[in-house]
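Researcher: Last one for today. Full complex below.
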Amino acid sequence: MTLPDAPQSIRTEPVLDGTAWMAADLAVPEGVVSELKPPHLAEIAAFLSELRAAPLPVQAERALWQALAHRSMPELSALAHAMAHRTETHVGTAVLRGLPVDALSPDEIRSLYRALGAVMGNAVSQNTAGEFIAEVRDYGMGGLNSSEVRGYQTNAALRFHSDDGDLALLLCVRPAANGGTSLIASAMTIYNELLIRAPHLLGLYYNGFVYENRDEEDPPAYRNAIFGYYHGQLTCRYFLRDYVDSAWTKTSVPVSDLERYALDLFEALAARPGAATEYALRAGDLQLVNNNVIVHSRRSFTASGNTGQRLLLRQWVNLDGGRDFPTSLCRHRYGMQTHTDART
Amino acid sequence: MTLPDAPQSIRTEPVLDGTAWMAADLAVPEGVVSELKPPHLAEIAAFLSELRAAPLPVQAERALWQALAHRSMPELSALAHAMAHRTETHVGTAVLRGLPVDALSPDEIRSLYRALGAVMGNAVSQNTAGEFIAEVRDYGMGGLNSSEVRGYQTNAALRFHSDDGDLALLLCVRPAANGGTSLIASAMTIYNELLIRAPHLLGLYYNGFVYENRDEEDPPAYRNAIFGYYHGQLTCRYFLRDYVDSAWTKTSVPVSDLERYALDLFEALAARPGAATEYALRAGDLQLVNNNVIVHSRRSFTASGNTGQRLLLRQWVNLDGGRDFPTSLCRHRYGMQTHTDART
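Model: Here's the assembly. Have a good evening.
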């Protein structure tokens, strides 16, 4: 009998490119900031003017939004596209600052946001309602200890985690009165530490953990890898730990001590002094979060006083010509099934 | 935030004692053979004589059987006890040869077998019927692809596996006409190979795999580690792979490619040329299999012609003063719940 071939390889060398960093390595807390300049604002005015003349629903296909953006906002589109792709090799996060959200109507905000997302990549559905733009706010449903609630629906602090698409695009429409700051850490730096501190446990992270589907999809639970190494690229997905802790309700198999340790260690490495950068998003900030290489978290927040509650808009987009890896590393990379799909 | 403490340590050094071997290292295929001599046979006659005078049901408690054995068979008891404990550090398997099964009635065989088991350790229940002595034979129910069937109930070949107690004691009453030979490999040697060939996957083996409970117990599936390292002792349990492959029917979570590889690799290392010893049990052979350090398998068999079908009797016993390790490494080490227990 010959020995079997390994289905994938385990990376044994540290990651040394710009995606592996400590907070002190960053020039600014946001990693990279591009501020909009007057010509960009003029392009946005042209975009909105063209849109008023020929309305386009946000549900319209990406190619239409992409064409409109390229035509009416050539400089801003080039900037957004470059920022998005640069996150793959440099820092893994960036902020496009100064979108004129206070001067725009809610519909105009969503249109501009849809157009910029379409320039950066292909947006996918984030829930079984098929939403491509989800509102990240307090839905008043409580925290993640309720099995009905997802991370974007609560004002509670969130643990370090990844979202599903290559990029999460978070547009700050209204910041919180208190709290809600972003924390961002390099998953590549975490991996480099694991190589030293827990090399024999790497297989656990590559094999992944079982997550509860929060009643949104069948099957009720699924395995997702935390790290994968394909075509010379190390990729991470670390979904909300809360869904691992509750998965036993669907599988009858509780989290083991060793699994709990592996998850605790990952999060402790993200949260240790100097690892994460923390800052508050401002109204008009579009935050790019590259889920392939970084993890993010958020502190709890309270309402914004007279101006209404904290509101972020979220898109998940996949980069054109992006990394090639199997869905065992990101089950919902190409979006969640809508309930309509699930029933047909 | 400080880093969490690991719940257990991973052994990074090879095992170098007598439990790590290749087939060519063994003096005889059985590892260790002790043949009964006339004084032992005389003791057995005395034992049976005493038993006829004062019958003792096999269900009677261990202390009674132990006392009877020590009193009526002092030499054979000392031999059996020494053989059992020596498996912990030397080879991990042995055969006590020449029990006079052909001269004894079925009840006498069970009584002698019960007494020898009681000398070696504490027997535990092997199924939800609460059987302490199970018959290993073809129950005519088919193979392990049926979710109702357990390994001891089929004539199919069995993969390499462990049983639950520290020792499996297999008494050959009737060998098969064809096939049914035993294969035994050192789990410690397999570990030494894994240290070299797949060091980053060790965490997977320590974390273990999810096994189906074959409808015998709640919960319907459970995790069991394959290796554990406690108090300086490396211990293995590798339960029948078939129960891992079918566990998704209870959990909704299929075996991953990396898990399948880890299981395939373990079994390939057991089955590779030179690793396992193979031999046929003879009528009257009592085979000791130390599940802490070795794995065993069996080839398929056919009926024994006129003399009836192949029949082994099986006990699972735990050694007095045996290893200390948690049940996460052997869920049923102390026996399976009987259905009566489960309902109360």
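Chain A touches chain B through 47 residues (CB under 8 Å). Chain A has a mean pLDDT of 93.
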